[in-house]
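Entry 14. Ran structure prediction on the chain below.
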Amino acid sequence: CKKSLIMDCRDCKNINCFVNNYCLPNWLGYIQYNKTSKLLASERMIFTAGDLVEGIYIICSGKAKVLMKTHNHKKKEKVQIIRVAGDGQILGHRGISEEMIYPISAETILESEIAYISNTDFIKLINSNKDFAYHMIMFYADELLQSEQKLRVTGIQSIEEKVAIAIISIVNAFGYKDENTGELDLSIGLKELANFAIVSLPSLHKVIDILISKGVIELNNKTIFLLSESRLRNIASFDY
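Output, structure tokens:
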């Protein structure tokens, strides 16, 4: 059955939400009144590359993937997963530029509640909440650093490093389904994980076998259990 919209900014329990964590209490009522919330089923587009940027999106609950169209050496078009995002994270910020057109798309992975905040209200938040403004600056800086790191090493990474980075990125975005067992809250299939890691599906299976042999992960009916996050981060070779 469908769940109802329950996220109210004035009494939000989402500890990952940027607005909830960094805006002054009196501004939470303003956002609650001015935001637009909607419940999207899985595999629904949140916004599409080429759309005009008229605001930003926050994942109140659920999961999403950010997609970019690329071309291989044969000029064949491919849709690449470049980011995954979970509860409380912002989407659409990459489109804020002089052109104000989204260069990427975003799609729900599972049923998600998405809040939309217009550009005008987003600027008001930044101007009136210094902690929120500072956090947004740091968020953009972290994203830029990660993009630069990935661009610098993508061509020289081993497939093991690429898979390790993809899994760590998922841990950062979604956390664990069960921290005691290390069961990952993967939410995407192995084919999509291979896409995110920029490796072939056979290469992903090869790396999974290697990581299992090293005692870093376990695999049970396509469910991945991370046995040593620290060792996986070491394999990823740089900070993620």
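The CA atoms of residues 9 and 20 lie 7 Å apart. Will compare against last week's run tomorrow.
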